[in-house]
Amino acid sequence: MPRRARGLLAVAVLASAGCGAEQSLREALAPSLTPHERYAKRLRDAGLDSTALGSGWIAAADRAIAEPVVIGLPFRETGYLSPTETRAVAYRLSLRSGQRLALKLEVADSTSMPMFVDLYQQPVDSTEALDHVASAEPGARVFEYEARRDGAFLLRVQPELLRGGQYTLTLESGPSLAFPVSGRDSRAAQSFFGAARDGGRRNHHGIDIFAPRGTPVIAASAGFVRNVGISNLGGKVVWVYDAKRSQSLYYAHLDSQIARPGAMVNIGDTLGLVGNTGNARSTPPHLHFGIYRRGEGPVDPFPFVQRSRATVTPVLVDVGDLGDWVRTSAATVTLRAAPAESAMAVVRLPRHTVLRIESASGSWYRARLPDGASGWLSARFAERAQRPLRTERRLEVVTVREAPGSASPAMESMAAGTRVPVLGRFADYLYVQTPGVRTGWMAAEDGAR
Q1: Residue ranges of domains in the chain, CATH in brackets
Q2: Is this structure's pTM higher than 0.85?
Q3: What is the reported pLDDT for 446?
């Protein structure tokens, strides 16, 4: 039996045994493994890691992490992962401590495309390993994560072997806590964390949220009222311990306190009323809101309560070309590092350069060149590589290859004198259509355009 056939058979057996009692027991004994790692372990246990399929799947996961797509939030992308290829895609994004990342993954048929979703944080020291921080449950299409510290994160999405199709991924960031002043939002904050106080002798360890005297101050999280008291700086204060996040929330300068020590409160419960007690007597009424963590001290509370006003840009281009080859339609087209005209240029391409469309976001395509380089292409500069640009007649036998390059496997040979429709170009190779109505690559003659 051919090696690929053995691999396909093993995958089928693996899939059919995926919910068996023996597998469940093995996975229960290894609770620290992520769903992706458990699946990779089952591949190894089945001997699939030595096949082209299995080793390719594992290598694709590593390659995606090494070559992430850099994005900003919010972000929406419709992409295509071919079931005949071992592919994964990773995204690099930034989060502040206290922000919540929300993911939504839509696929046409969830049973045909089981997906693994893993989130890693990049260490400050580039020599250290990635820190795995969260994974979606198998089959989950909604996923949330609250960042514990500022930094860059890598989100990887990968289907099981021989599974694939079209998907839409939506990523948004938002606050992990409710806003602590009733009827207000982050626009009411006018003094921020780290600002100098007392002529530079100390720093501001919170944010000031201005509102009329008597406005309800509400619990930003569920928790335990640890202290209700009075201090010289804070005036009338309330401390609430948020056990879910192992942090204390500090509400100061209250006009009056309503919460009682030892009480359990829920999000939205009134703790007191806005005032200007303590060292805020000379300022307009406001709430000083702070967050403290054991071992860290004060942390910036603004990302915990700031709600972005940015909205997700819908996919505005035709997604019918996903997975297909297109060609550039302008004299010079710039492939960029992100889907924006202001993004850094990756490479500049001449007219009729052939690229493969992997996904679409807004009015941009994420495309990959035949040599593996990728970037974002404005959709207005892309056209389908179907209508021949011209025909070429070669006087010698022509070898058409699967990819541009002499080391690529030969796909078909065409007899001398055959007229070949040319659909596009990359480097020293032409993208052509064979008499068998297949597409492939043949070497360009000197001076051919």
Answers
A1: 3-175 (2.60.120.380), 186-297 (2.70.70.10), 321-381 (2.30.30.40), 390-443 (2.30.30.40)
A2: yes
A3: 57
